[in-house]
Design goal:
The chain is built from 25 helices and 17 strands. By secondary structure, it is of the alpha/beta class. The strands form 3 sheets. The chain has a 6-stranded mixed beta sheet, with no helix packed on it.
């Protein structure tokens, strides 16, 4: 069946229409697209793709994709790598296929209007849209809105590592293609360490471009990327954000790395007035409500790099999630020991320790707390301190919202992802879960959008597909034996990274919003005005918002400051984007 291709480009992006006698696909993308057409297919590439194991193509990626599709057909995803969204029209089969990368780095919103009409976009428009109550609940739970939901009803977004297949006249079918096999490699630890260094070196090398620099927080991942950038290029440049707030600043470690690799290093100390100045812009720039408070730091850091002429930033995101770098991985191993005890012993400990009397006795209450937490299975235990689990839902959410949502769905999504991991090890399962929720829907969204706002392209060499696949061949007990975080990774880069970097505790681009809100009248006023406006939306209970404010004021600037932040950000986003959710 003959398909007609139409493209229109302007400052807002690129519009593509693919149509035949009775079917139509409309695409609207804010970024450039590469398009090619052959007698067999039409191929469209957003982002950067390449042959698995090969370097990125300098041009002609859509033409290469069309040829690869001809050669590999439905096995195509196994032969490609990169960070992309691909659209293929098979003219002979009259089928459309959408493929995103293994971490879903480019948002793809899908709306199937009819069996013959599909719309795709990397952004959302609120024109005539209704807010999705389930997505609002998920935002409070996750501080973002994970796929497949979106903030608006009747629009979904692709989960990472899937293909969406559409035969006109039928509904879209989603299939997960990225399901790594966690099989230990037949190699010594030394051989695996050498392979790790080689893969990371190649990953950084293939992502370097002109006018390139690296984020440098001072941690293992950003230091490794900065070091490899210095290895493969002359006069490497690095950028850090600092904070004049106790417990939030780690620029001294960034400086250690910069001196070690002799990078041209720039540090910017984020000031409270910068938050006041950019708060509305940052909150509204995300395609959907996004509550990660470190977004501001990422934006200011990228903005300063852009002012120096930098156009591409390399980020270290992903290393923690493939080489066991998060504290929760080893913490949860301690609780998992309880589930490995014989049943009768578990029952005895349960009766003896999980009760109010034991919880009140000094010297025993710690053991009581351990049993109480250990009885909660993974991954639910990871959300023990989630706001949604710390308060009664009727105390927190409006009655109207609760009647419209499945309050168990957010937790069930995490359970499904956790159980989908093809490994029996809890550490592997937690890392696999984080590929979806910590990276795909949170960290990579944060850095990508804030760099886009600053006019900079960001690249994530530590989460290249080959490196993720390799990490699955390293046994979990080698990645993090006992309580040793990043054990394998640290040994892999011992002698390359400074000893101080290898031995430092984990930190990151945190934001002292709660501290500054108390100190800065303008910031306090902005937040309180947003909270008062949000009460009228009938999403959260007004009394709950008042309780959050008063508890925050009484000294809980960290935990409750984060709660205040996510509510304020949601209100500012809704003010700018709209959407119908009548009280």
């Amino acid at each position: 069946m003959s398909w007609q291709l139409k493209l229109d480009s302007d400052n807002a992006g690129t519009a593509v229409t693919l149509s035949n006698a009775d079917s139509r696909l409309d695409m609207q993308f804010t970024q450039p697209l590469d398009v090619a057409e052959t007698e067999h297919c039409i191929s469209i590439v957003a982002g950067r793709c390449r042959p698995y194991g090969g370097d990125y193509l300098q041009s002609g990626s859509a033409a290469w994709l069309a040829q690869a599709y001809l050669e590999h057909q439905h096995r195509l995803p196994a032969h490609i790598a990169g960070f992309f969204l691909l659209v293929l029209i098979d003219k002979q089969r009259n089928q459309l296929q959408i493929i995103n990368d293994h971490v879903g780095s480019i948002a793809c919103y899908i709306s199937q209007q009819t069996a013959q009409h599909v719309q795709l976009s990397d952004t959302l428009t609120a024109t005539g849209a209704k807010l999705c109550p389930q997505a609002l609940f998920h935002y409070v739970f996750y501080h973002c809105i994970p796929s497949p939901h979106s903030i608006y009803q009747n629009t979904s977004k692709l989960e990472p590592g899937v293909t969406a297949n559409w035969t006109p006249g039928e509904n879209i079918q989603i299939q997960n293609y990225y399901q790594p096999d966690f099989t230990p490699a037949n190699a010594s630890p030394e051989q695996l360490m050498a392979k790790c260094r080689e893969l990371i070196s190649d990953a950084v090398r293939r992502n370097i471009s002109d006018n390139c620099a690296a984020f440098l927080s001072g941690g293992l991942d950003s230091s490794t990327v900065a070091g490899m950038l210095a290895k493969h290029s002359e006069q490497a440049k690095t950028y850090s954000i600092g904070f004049d707030a106790k417990g939030y600043d780690e620029t001294e470690y960034a400086l250690i790395t910069a001196k070690h690799f002799n990078t041209q290093h720039q540090v910017h100390y984020l000031q409270p007035e910068e938050i006041e100045q950019h708060f509305n812009t940052v909150a509204g720039y995300f395609t959907e409500p996004f509550g990660n408070s470190s977004a501001m730091a990422a934006y200011i850091c990228a903005k300063n790099a852009r002012a120096d002429g930098i156009t591409v930033m390399l980020a270290g995101d992903g290393g923690d999630e493939i080489f066991a770098g998060n504290e929760r991985y080893v913490k949860q191993k301690v609780f998992e020991q309880y589930s490995n005890l014989p049943g009768p012993l578990q029952k005895l400990l349960d009766i003896s320790l999980d009760n109010g009397i034991a919880a009140a006795i000094p010297g025993i209450k710690k053991a009581s707390s351990y049993v109480r937490q250990a009885k909660v299975p993974l991954p639910d235990r990871l959300d023990s301190y989630n706001f949604v689990n710390r308060f009664a839902l009727k105390q927190m959410f409006s009655e109207k919202l609760l009647t419209q949502v499945d309050t168990n769905l957010a937790a069930q999504q995490k359970r499904s992802r956790y159980q989908a991991c093809q490994s029996d090890d809890a550490v592997d399962k937690m890392m696999y879960l984080d590929w979806k929720f910590t990276l795909a829907d949170n960290d990579l969204v944060k850095v990508s959008r804030m760099c886009h706002l600053a006019g900079v392209e960001v690249r994530f060499p530590l989460f290249e597909k080959e490196l993720v696949d390799f990490s699955c061949t390293v046994p979990a007990e080698l990645k993090a034996p006992g309580q040793k975080l990043r054990h394998f990774y640290k040994n892999s880069f011992r002698g390359f990274l400074p000893d101080a970097t290898l031995n430092k505790s984990k930190h990151g681009f945190g934001l002292p919003f709660g501290v500054w809100m108390k100190q800065r009248p303008a910031l306090n006023s902005l937040a309180l005005d947003a909270l008062e406006a949000f009460k009228k939306r009938n999403i959260l209970q007004s009394d709950f918002i008042d309780t959050a404010i008063s508890t925050f004021r009484d000294g809980h600037s960290g935990y409750y400051g984060e709660l205040v932040w996510i509510i304020v950000v949601l209100e500012l986003w809704l003010q700018q984007h709209g959407g119908d959710y009548a009280a």
